[in-house]
Each structure stands twice: as C-alpha cells, then as structure tokens.
Amino acid sequence: MNAYPTEAIARSRVLVVGDIMLDRYWFGEVERISPEAPVPVVRVARREDRLGGAANVARNVVALGGQSTLIGIVGADEAGQSIARLATQGGVHADMAIDAENPTTLKMRVLGRQQQLLRVDFEQPPASVALDDLDARVARHLAQHDVMVVSDYAKGALDRVEALIALARGAGVPVLVDPKGDNYTRYRGATLMTPNRSEMQQAVGRWNSESELTERAQRLRADLDIEALLVTRSEQGMTLFTEAGREHVDAQAHEVFDVSGAGDTVLATLAAMRAIGLPWVQAMAWANRAGGIVVGKLGTSTVTAEELAGDSL
Question: Does the N-terminal or the C-terminal CB of the chain have fewer CB atoms within 10 Å?
Fold first, then answer.
C-alpha cells in the first residue's frame, strides 16, 4: 500500500452530522455476589467518559490528522457539558444544538475485570426546535467542508436527513452515510452508504451467494441514486459496489477485542480519504486497515495517523 498521505489529510475538512452520545465507562473489581440479588457487586475504581456516535466519528477524523466540525444535539446537562469538553480536548470543532427539553444521549457501561457486566441507556428524541437549530447550523458550515458525514444511530437528530442530503448535494458536497434501520429511501441521493452485514440483510434480505449479494446491492445502489455502497462484513472484510463493479478486501484484524465504535472509525477514514480525492477502492483499503486496528482496543476508540502509517509500511 502507498505511504500514508499525512500532508493531504491535514488539509481535509470533514463535516460530521448526526446522533451525538456520551459513552461512560465505570471500571471496577468483582469480588462477591450481592446478598440482595444474584448479581455481582462491582467496586468502582475508575471512571472514564468518551465521545460516542457522531462525536466518535469526528474524533476519529482528527486522530487521523484531518479537520472536523461536529454538529448534533445535546441536552442542557452534565453529559452535554462533558461532550463539549471532550470535543475541545480532542481537537474537534463542535457546534452543537442544545435541547433544553431532553437529556443528552448517554450509554453507561459497568465493567468488571475488563468484561462488560451492564449497560444503562438514557435517551429521548429531540424537540423540533432543536432540529430546526441543527438544520441551521449545517447550512452555515456546509460550504467550508470537503465532505459531509451522516452518522445515524436512530436517536432522532437525523429525522430530517432527506433535507440535509439535498442541501449538501445542491452545494456539491459529497455525503457519506452510516445508515440505520431498513428504510434506506431516507438516504436517497447520498454519495456513499456503509451498512454492515446485518443492516444490509435488513434492507435487501438474506443472500445465498456472492452473485446474489452483488445483484441486490447494485439494484439498491441504482434505486437510491447512490454512487457507492460499501458493505462492512466483520470477519469477511468489506465489499464495495459502484457503477464500475464489485471490489472486495479481506479483514485485517489481528485480534478482535471489542467492536464498539469500529464502524465510526471506518466511516471517518473513508471520509478523510475521500476529502483528499482518493478513489473509493483506495479509501476502502485504508478504512479496512483502520477497522482492523481499532477492534483490538477496548470500547469506543480511535486510530491515529501514526498507527495507520506504521501499518502501511
């Protein structure tokens, strides 16, 4: 593979729009079972907050050496303040709408001996006034960016995604979408979609052969007027479908420790590479390498430019 394009990536500008969440981890030791119920007692020794969802995509772009602006919705609460602080520390320019009526989406995980024991989610769909605010922020920032990433976690920030895609398309800005659910017509007119294997099966049904997958993927791509469709397939690697045909790369994970946020890393890498004009096939190869590195880390993590550069030697 060619050398990592450090200087070009430094000039890339990626606008990330979508569902922002805070990933909160409580790490501890398990030494006994509760007398109140047959559950382990975790004595918490360390707490850590990380950017999740669309915020993790933006953080990954910066870790790769690019420039990233993050737009989404957070609540007027402690979790929202933590996201703003972490974004600043991570070099992400965050311009987030504040929803005074609803909380920041928060996923709290309790781990004992590096094993996840419990996850507690706090989330509510955003108010319409917050969606209006998000739309206005996207309109202000779009022209200053090379690529727009849509990170959909079905939390409500992208309830009007059709209008956002139309706005970007009108401005000539490519749109890369990490989709959710099975109603892919919402993303019509995007430039690229990156469903995982399960999401692709939801959208087109199960396939029994590679030729059947190719036929269904190309039909979906044409129906939605999408330039490229990248199906991430875990241990089976990634398959790219474009007008030119089908391209595939095998998975490169050395050791799978945690797949949390791996899709965010793949999406961020694709965005950064497309922002500097690399062809889809080359962008996929870099994204595959990044995904292979990040699954060897615990929780929502990033891959740095140095790690990818070293992996390309």
Answer: C
In the chain, the DSSP E strands lie at 13-18, 20-33, 40-53, 67-71, 73-75, 93-94, 97-99, 105-112, 115-122, 147-151, 175-178, 192-193, 228-232, 238-242, 245-249
The residue type found at 179 is P
Tell me how crowded residue 281 is: count the other CB atoms within 10 A of its CB.
Answer: 13
82: its two tokens: 């933590």
pLDDT tens for 2-47 read 788 999 999 999 999 999 999 999 999 998 999 999 999 999 999 9
Q: Taking the CB of residue 6, how many other CB atoms lie within 10 A of it?
A: 13
- Predicted local confidence at residue 291, as pLDDT: 84
pLDDT per residue over 237-279, tens digit each? Answer: 899 999 999 999 887 755 544 445 578 889 999 999 999 999 9
Backbone angles phi, psi at 256, to 5 degrees: -90, 115
Measured between alpha carbons, how far is 158 from 175 in angstroms, rounded to an integer? Answer: 14
Q: How far apart are CA 201 and CA 216, in angstroms?
A: 10
Cα separation, 85 vs 89, in Å, equals: 6
pLDDT tens digits, one per residue of 114-147: 789 999 999 999 999 999 999 999 999 999 999 9
> Residue 130: phi, psi to the nearest 5?
-70, -35
Note if 19 is an active site residue.
no
Q: Which of 133, 178, 264, 311 is catalytic?
A: 264
User: Which domains, from first to last, does the chain contain?
Assistant: 9-30+40-311 (3.40.1190.20)
